[in-house]
Design goal:
CATH class: Alpha Beta
CATH superfamily: Spore Coat Polysaccharide Biosynthesis Protein SpsA, Chain A
Number of domains: 1
Mean pLDDT: 85
Number of helices: 6
Shape: globular
Length: 161
């Protein structure tokens, strides 16, 4: 995994299909440094959704709602594939990560910790090359991640009491 091979204390994750434009990285880094955040997330503007089909828009908005409603609001777009975070957070929660699928951000932020998270709204661009990886297998893995996080949060609450 690239995170473990990194020599730096901060990690940038970004989907490689260029729907997340790297031009937002300087603004995200300034926000990260200025606010001493644990995470800065490039959140998609769902009102200006040119990079998503109507079905993907509905699926993304539904998943964001479900995660935030049942796991506690953390950010408006926990399904984002564009974020900056402290590498130490990854190592702190590595044993508790679901680790299947592509939703590392949601896997990290929905732990029992209270993270300082800032958002930067980004324009989610249209995919230029290749097909979306979103299919029933990915959706099933996201649902499994959600259920895993619910169980993990319940176990952590029981252990604290």
């Amino acid at each position: 995994m690239g995170i473990k091979k990194s020599r730096y204390p901060n990690i940038v994750i970004m989907d490689s299909d260029l729907q997340h434009n790297p031009k937002y990285l300087p603004v995200m880094m300034r926000t990260y440094n200025k606010n001493n955040c644990d995470f800065v997330v490039g959140v998609r503007d769902f009102k200006n959704y040119q990079g998503l089909s109507k079905i993907r828009l509905l699926a993304s908005r539904t998943l964001c709602f479900v995660f935030n409603f049942f796991l506690g609001y953390r950010i408006s777009d926990p399904m984002s594939g564009f974020a900056i975070f402290k590498k130490s957070i990854f190592y702190r929660f590595e044993e508790e990560l679901f680790g299947v699928g592509w939703k590392l951000l949601a896997d990290l932020i929905y732990n029992d910790a209270k993270f300082k998270i800032k958002e930067c709204t980004i324009k989610f661009d249209r995919r230029i090359y290749h097909e979306s990886k979103m299919n029933h297998v990915v959706l099933i893995n996201v649902i499994k991640l959600f259920l895993y996080k619910i169980v993990l949060l319940k176990i952590n609450k029981i252990q604290k009491n």
